[in-house]
From TrEMBL:
This is ISPsy16, transposase. Residues 10-81 form the Transposase IS110-like N-terminal domain. GO terms for molecular function: DNA binding; transposase activity. InterPro entries: Transp_IS110-like_N, Transpos_IS110, Transposase_20. PANTHER family: PUTATIVE TRANSPOSASE FOR IS117-RELATED, TRANSPOSASE FOR INSERTION SEQUENCE ELEMENT IS1111A. One of its GO terms (biological process) is DNA transposition. Residues 143-201 form the Transposase IS116/IS110/IS902 C-terminal domain.
Amino acid sequence: MRARVFSNASRYTYRMSGKRGKNDAADAAAICEAVTRPSMRFVPVKDEHQQATLCLHRTRQGFIEERTSTYNRLRGLLSEFGVVLPQSPERLRKEIGPCLDSLPGWARRCMSELLEHTSHIEDRLVELDRAINQIAREDDRSRRLLQLRGVGSTTASALVACIGDGHDFRNGRQVAAWLGLTPSQYSSGEKQRLGSITKAG
């Protein structure tokens, strides 16, 4: 028998009425009920290459968030000394030199360490981008995606890592819903009400 994976949240939908609380018996009953439904949506299992590529992308995203956070912290601390610098990281790096010299001892040291930390993050991001570009060049599916206007190595490799060959989707509309590009509906009778964009479609 082949094991299949489905969303953890689905078990709450199929939990028997009157069953309160969480225990193994209630979860098992909900899972049995869920897998017998023809409308049940299963989660495709990713291979090791997909997981490794996604690991690369998540690490990169974490570094980007950390870089933004560090620059914001740097600008916030400098503003306490009356130094206001532009939001652009490039301009901030150009203009921060003379400002650091005017700061008192520990403040100058802390700002210098934060600036050095951003440099380290930038170096790591360059390495990760290089690895992502190489993965995209070596994969046939990514190369096909790269031919589309507006799709770069990062998008192509991330999409292939997430959906693989795309055989788990019946058509492009399902891919759009999975990406979260379809509005939710709250329609009845002749009135059509479209809500916010959701992954549920």
